[in-house]
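Retro notes - structure team

What went well: the batch runner handled both jobs without manual restarts.
What didn't: labels got mixed up in the shared folder, which is why I'm recording both outputs here explicitly, each with its sequence directly above its tokens.

Job 1
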Amino acid sequence: MTAIKIPAKILHGAYIARITLFADKFYIRSAQEFVLYYARFFGFDERDLTKLELATEEAVLSTIENSFEEGDSGSFDVKVGYRPGAFVISIEDQGLPADAERLEKQENSALGMLLMRNLTDEFNIVNLGRDGKRIELVKYIHDTSIAELLSSEEMADNPDTPAVAGDRPTMRLIRPEDAPMLARLAYRVYGYTYASVFYYPDKLRELIENGLINSVVSINNEGEIVGNLSLFFEHQGAKVADSGAAMIDPRYRGHSLFKESKKFLQRYAEQNGMYGIYSEAVTIHPFTQQGNMSLGAKETGIMLAYASENLTFKKINNDKKSEQRQAVALFYLKTNKEPRRKVFLNEKFFPLLQMLIQHNELDRELILVSDNESPLAEREQASVTTVVKPDLNIAVIMILQHGADVIPLVAQQLRELCLKKIETIYLEIPVDEAYAAVVAREMNKRGFMLSGIIPELRNGDILKMQYLNNVYVNPDKIVMASPLHKEILGVIMQDYQ
């Protein structure tokens, strides 16, 4: 079966199908057969079906072993669903939160297998405290990949052909049918070192159609896409977007395509009522950072050890690989007036974050919560989601709602990720209530360092923190283009030391 034949109204519902099973290992095979039945509708080959089968086994085993006491007669749900370009398996339970101490003793814990990059493309944990948790396994659906699109000449990796004399690429917004050509551009710029959806044209096309990705592309006289800069939206209609996937064909470097692409997207954001655009600029060279600042983007922080040391840029820095996981510099480009908001900050981070918020000219009432204060959470239960990105070997713990149990929830999730050898773990904390300052203070005591602030990310500002799991960082290898980013790096490295 090679084509999706599930009715559209079912395909785009909350889920396609659900099965409830008792918390006993006897039912693992039932869960696998259920998943495989629906996976075959999406045209996965036998290799991918085997991966999904193994991933389902490990996820169900983990749920049984870690969410229920021995002999417990509880149950869990297995759901299959669809997101643009992806098949999603969810294992949901209302059992006990995972016992970190027990996990530590289980060297072969099932979650370890889930995090292997060759099983799934994304791995998410939604932790709801006493309401249980949901494990999500995401596998991209693709009929073609970049390897199948490349000609023998392109595979030979010879991008040295000079641009046509007088060629002045024009810019426009991306169209869904551009996806295959954009995949070729990704290869010309990064080879196979870029962990990205851009290598899967079918998924990319659907994300464009669903308004989750928009791009400005540069088109040369031959009709080729030779430049790209994208906006990534968390949901349709989001007021801010992440700017990324900056790709310039090596033949067209020096044509100011990146700067002009930024200007194009800036105008787009202004005209469409967006508050702003945030972005991550690589730090193995200063060019992208300088391009951001020349357009008025302001510094907001630094994410250490974000990208693999294997990421390379063709024809930049003589294609040398980094000697360590690469940091990225955080920027925010304000495009429209944002709402006035209250921001609660802990004592240690207040001076730097106050400077960054004022530097970005945000309309904020800053409230200092001293170390002697212990405000209570406004709710009893927190909502926490963890996204694991196997290709980058990083995880992001997102606090979606504060609650009295949020600190132990995050601490447990951190420990579990560390045991599974995730190298870099980021924490995103909404700072719209006083308890946020307590969370930031306590997480700092547990090893999370400051990363920065992301304005208006989820109907308000997000404090970003970072934890390095036995990752070495030499600040001398991080190229910072601005004095303020150098100052931010100095503050972060004090905690690192």
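Job 2
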Amino acid sequence: MRVLTGMSNIMIILVALASGCSAEENLAVSETQSISDDQAVAALVRGNNEFALNLYEEVCKIQESDNIFFSPYSISSALGMTYDGARGQTAVDMAEVLHFTLPVEAVNRAFHSLTETMSSGDLSGAESGDPFTLSISNGLWVQDGFNLLDEYVAEVTRYYSAGVRNLNFIDDPEGSRETINEWVAESTMNRILDLIPPGVLKEDTRVVLTNAVYFKASWRNQFDEHFTKDATFFLTDGSAIEVPMMNQTDYFNYSSTEGCSAIELDYAAGKASMLILLPDGDIQEFQQDFNADKLGTIRRRLSSCNVSLSMPKFEFTRSLQLSQILRTLGMESAFGSGADFSGFTGSPDLFISEVLHKAFVKVDEEGTEAAAATAVVMGLTAMPAQPVEMNINRPFMFFILDRETGSIVFMGRVMDPSA
């Protein structure tokens, strides 16, 4: 198997198990030749971002007061590989939940183009100290002797660059688990460990699809460590804690609109940025009506401004079990005995057993490091104006965005920087 290094902070794993159900025709496919790569990528990014915010809303319901971090792109990519083999109502349900609005071939092509646009290559850049690394990799793990259709293998290999490897889930499920977890660790610079817990892979496991993302980038305008001081951060319950706060004054894209202050911090090479949203009031209320349209409005209203910025350093790892969340969003048919993934083998003998996700993020004076895995991120000539103050001293949302496409690679929420 060709092991590809992957972008940091989140990995999702889909485990497909043997089942029995009837096969139907695949989701209707229209002519795709007339859909350009640019059109397909734009449609995919819109859909992925809508799915990201739907997923964030559901995660917030489960983790009401906790820090949140995940990679929507990693999740969408792993589920995209799975969607390629879905048929009938299962394909319809997956497309609706994932906001895939294109025929499956165009979705695959768009994922390929988008990954090539965003990715900087493999992990060698991070290992050599390059200021920007975004590495994305996929894997297809199959029970030895369990035959997948050549067409399916060809498509995930071509469009997702997925390395294909046989394992013995039947006789050695724990050894198989360790092998996949080692791939995840290697693909995320050892930031994502033990993605698949003991007991998840069983004797009836037949297919596991994995995606790994690794991101490490320096700020374009780095913070001076000498200006980092302990300061107060206010929690939602009214209490306060002391945390290390980084400080700098410079020109950033900034706006005060839609009930929040927003600031965009560019990474080196200009390929990605972090967008931070600091709600004017309670973050729980702000999240209730936050959607892709509002995110787009905030981004369009950003403009260069002299900002005196204070923000906390933070580092944490979060795990998500996504199966129930995806069912709640409408993907129920993919998990039961009526699932139709006959595009994998030619017969409806697979269903999704688990969708696991784990992500890591570290933000400090130099920049950001993030990793994820999934198994199934103007100059002015006049005198500087008095800087606007933006003190990020209370809970906030943040996004790591691809600058060219607007794709949400990672997103999260910081309720307590010390947690």
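One thing worth noting from job 2: The domain at 10-218+316-362 is CATH 3.30.497.10 (Antithrombin; Chain I, domain 2).
We'll revisit the folder naming next retro.
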